[in-house]
Amino acid sequence: MKPKILLSANNNKQYYIDAVNSAGGQAVCEYLPEVDLSFDGLILCGGNDIDPKYFGEEINGSVNIDAPRDEAEFKLAKAFIESGKPVMGICRGSQLLNVYFGGSLIQHLPNADIHTNKSDHYITHAVAAEKGSILEKLYGENFCINSSHHQAVDKLGAGLRATAFYENVVEAFEHTSLPVFAVQFHPERMCCSERRPDTANGAPIFEYFINLCKKQK
């Protein structure tokens, strides 16, 4: 039976659904989903900025905060992580997981223009993956990704290991003991109908997550 994957997203839902289903999962994607531990794994997707109150700061660059989504996704993260189920974060989702584990965020990168743009066709750049990390095993030490963010990890949360970088910006991390990992980029926009020649294929990330869910069942 295919692992059931709960995805929390507020836009571009079909990209995430296609990526999970093509990787062998059964995706259910909702905005503000209730906690439901009958699912085998959780993916926290991209979207608006997180309220900086969650990491003890005033608003200083954060925009378009979605308070109901913040509340819902911190509850989801807590429930799935405490149950030992796999959790993956993408873009906003990676930032939320870092904050969940006690980390903080750069609210607006000083060089945000090289990490995002106004076009729907995301800009790209290379990243360097740490040896032994999930991404290094999937793609090697250097590979190209897309990029669409103006915030990034500042202080890394407890138990997290940064595993990929673009210059000094953390592009991925994984937990040292829990089945939790995250990427700052958008692998769902690097696979299936969104496969592009100027980046790595995003599909192996979803395949890795689905296999992780199978192992944890």
Describe this structure in words.
The chain is an alpha/beta fold and 217 residues long. The protein has one domain: 3-Layer(aba) Sandwich (Rossmann fold), CATH 3.40.50. It is built from five helices and eleven strands; from the N terminus they run βαββαβαββαβββββα. The protein has a nine-stranded mixed beta sheet, with helices on both faces. β10 and β11 form a beta hairpin. The longest helix is centred in the middle third of the chain and has 16 residues, at 67-82. The model has no long low-confidence stretch (mean pLDDT 95).
Helix content: 25-40%
Low-confidence residue ranges:
none
Mean pLDDT across the residues is 95
Query: Major β-sheet, in short?
Result: 9 strands, mixed
- Alpha plus pi helix count: 5
**SS elements, strand count:** 11
Going by CATH, the architecture would be: 3-Layer(aba) Sandwich
Number of domains: 1
Biggest sheet strand line-up = 2-1-3-4-11-10-9-6-7
What class do helices, strands and sheet pairing give?
alpha/beta
Find the CATH superfamily.
Class I glutamine amidotransferase (GATase) domain
Order of helices and strands: EHEEHEHEEHEEEEEH
Mind telling me the C-alpha Rg?
Answer: 16 Å
In terms of DSSP E residues, the strand content is 15-25%
Shape label = globular
